[in-house]
């Protein structure tokens, strides 16, 4: 956690420019130790044939906050598995908000709960498992 506090700005800057999130227009709002919040305005091209938010868009914002939360310590972490539950449709023109919260973390793995809201209504949840590598992606000087 000390690395998170010491390098928080560098970690935040690195993670907020993730190319796919940038392409979609996802904005990283907040990052803390094992948590993240992001938002996205749903554009016309992000809906399905029924006029509701495409599941891939919902998954993308949920996956993005999961990635930010599990990488928030500056240590490279990758997803092992996710389970998504779609509960209600998001609407064209709405603002999606995704929040990831770390539930438990150990040396190699970490578990996260993610919720996605559309204009304040819960529309999906995700449970996610991350694998924590040894490598730091920010220039960390480790003490011996």
Automatic annotation (TrEMBL):
For this UniProt record, the keywords arranged alphabetically read as follows:
Hydrolase
Which positions fall inside the Thioesterase domain? 50-121
Please report a single Pfam family linked to this protein: 4HBT
One GO molecular function term? acyl-CoA hydrolase activity
Annotated protein name in UniProt: Phenylacetate degradation protein
Native source species? Heyndrickxia shackletonii
């Amino acid at each position: 956690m000390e690395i998170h506090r010491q390098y928080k700005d560098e970690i935040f800057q690195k993670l907020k420019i993730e190319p796919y999130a940038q392409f979609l227009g996802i904005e990283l709002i907040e990052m803390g130790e094992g948590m993240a919040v992001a938002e996205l305005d749903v554009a016309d091209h992000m809906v399905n044939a029924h006029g509701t938010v495409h599941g891939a868009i919902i998954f993308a914002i949920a996956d993005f906050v999961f990635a930010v939360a599990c990488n928030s310590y500056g240590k490279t972490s990758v997803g092992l598995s996710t389970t998504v539950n779609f509960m209600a449709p998001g609407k064209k023109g709405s603002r999606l908000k995704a929040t990831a919260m770390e539930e438990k973390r150990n040396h190699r793995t970490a578990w996260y709960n993610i919720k996605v809201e559309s204009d304040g209504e819960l529309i999906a949840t995700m449970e996610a498992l991350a694998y924590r590598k040894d490598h730091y992606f920010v220039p960390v000087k480790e003490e011996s």
